[in-house]
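Bumping my old thread because nobody answered last time. Still need a sequence for this structure:
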């Protein structure tokens, strides 16, 4: 029998699904509800010592929908509006009511040693299980010299990590930004500075769009906007890439985040190195209730693969990540068209023709492939609206 239980840095997770630091983890009552519904833990909405101004904009969200489904989500939201004391009391309450759930305090302070260390010392005596250092918020905070302004600079990231490690009495994860050229370099800097673990990714800096009637960009805040943080399904490939790149260069535990919307995404993050996963946007769109299907799906999958726990899945795909130079380019795959599904619309023929290769043609009601011209790129299989083309 497989289990979803797993252990990271000595912390027991009853399942590997935790709420990411965000609106679903911004209130004690909400976290209470999420725990009751089955989430394994929560990273609290980022807590500050109180001297960072926190005035929110309206609107603060903008979304990108495809076929009625939210694909990408942008926010320009700031940090927690609860005080440190409210979080301490809340943590105590949650520990009593949900003793087995993992609580992680996400924290951020100005780049001043005492500010970081005092915040950490305050939570050392609390019921939290770990810290997550927010070095990665891409909006609002960088203007104040924190958030992504820290996480894009290896030296400042290392300096603050050292300050924190000097006083922390609980494991410390550093949450990294994808908005850097080389995320592994920042991961290495904080690992060398003593971090116990890593979390990736925070949101991807973005500009959602422009209203073509008014020329006002989105999200519209009285006619203006600022660059925001992109999340949800659209960022999953970026999150996966970042976690994989970190794993290829570090053995530290990773809390994987970024576009996870179902158990499959979670499993993929584990295959490239995540120990457990965090979810934010999917919860904001569909509610805490998604946890049921996530747990069930992952458990069934582990059992179907003969794996005992999420730990057995960890890093499974890492050996298959290579450089372009080392890929085997001798063997080509060719399109195979299922005539029972193909509606002979000819789109694949047009696209192949207009995208360089002209290898497909519609002859006597069948799509035929000219293997002398086909390079096995797979574009036809992706543009087929009926999914009638497989690469074989
Ligand atoms: C509205 C919103 C607010 C967020 N606030 C925080 C925050 O306070 N601290 C933090 O570390 N990350 C914050 N994040 C980032 C998420 O924790 C997460 O890293 C990111 O959204 C990617 O995961 P997802 O695609 O599952 O949303 C926020 C994200 C959103 C959408």
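Sorry it took so long. Here it is:
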């Amino acid at each position: 029998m497989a289990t979803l239980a797993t252990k990271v840095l000595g912390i027991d997770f009853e399942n590997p699904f935790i709420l990411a630091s965000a609106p679903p983890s911004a209130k004690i009552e909400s976290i209470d509800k999420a725990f009751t519904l089955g989430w394994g833990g929560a990273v609290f909405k980022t807590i500050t010592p109180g001297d960072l101004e926190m005035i929110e904009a309206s609107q603060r969200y903008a979304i990108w929908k495809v076929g009625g489904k939210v694909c990408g989500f942008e926010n320009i939201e700031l940090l927690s509006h609860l005080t440190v004391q409210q979080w301490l009391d809340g943590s105590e309450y949650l520990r009593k009511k949900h003793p087995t759930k993992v609580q992680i305090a996400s924290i951020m302070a100005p780049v001043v040693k005492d500010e970081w260390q005092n915040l950490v010392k305050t939570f050392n005596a609390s019921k939290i299980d770990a810290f997550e250092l927010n070095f990665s918020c891409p909006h609002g905070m960088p203007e104040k010299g924190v958030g992504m302004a820290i996480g894009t600079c290896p030296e400042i990231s290392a300096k603050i990590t050292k300050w924190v490690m000097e006083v922390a009495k609980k494991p410390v994860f550093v949450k990294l930004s994808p908005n850097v050229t080389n995320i592994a370099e920042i991961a290495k800097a904080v690992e060398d500075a003593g971090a116990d673990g890593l979390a990736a990714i925070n949101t991807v800096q973005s500009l959602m769009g422009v209203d073509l009637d008014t020329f006002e960009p989105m999200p519209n805040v009285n006619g203006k906007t600022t660059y925001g943080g992109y999340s949800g399904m659209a960022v999953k490939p970026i999150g996966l890439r970042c976690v994989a790149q970190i794993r290829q260069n570090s053995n530290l535990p990773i809390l994987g985040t970024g576009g996870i919307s179902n158990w499959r995404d979670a499993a993929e993050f584990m295959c490239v190195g995540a120990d457990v996963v965090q979810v934010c946007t999917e919860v904001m769109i569909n509610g805490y209730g998604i946890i049921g299907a996530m747990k069930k799906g992952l458990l069934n999958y582990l059992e179907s693969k003969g794996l005992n726990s999420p730990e057995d899945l960890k890093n499974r795909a890492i050996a298959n990540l290579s450089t372009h130079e080392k890929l085997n380019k001798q063997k080509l795959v060719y399109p195979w068209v299922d005539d029972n599904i193909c509606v002979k619309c000819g789109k694949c023929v047009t696209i192949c023709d207009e995208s360089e290769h002209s290898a497909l043609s519609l002859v006597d009601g069948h799509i035929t492939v000219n293997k002398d011209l086909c390079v096995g790129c797979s574009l036809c299989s992706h543009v087929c609206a009926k999914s009638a083309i497989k690469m074989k």
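The two ends are 35 Å apart (CA to CA). Let me know if any region looks off to you.
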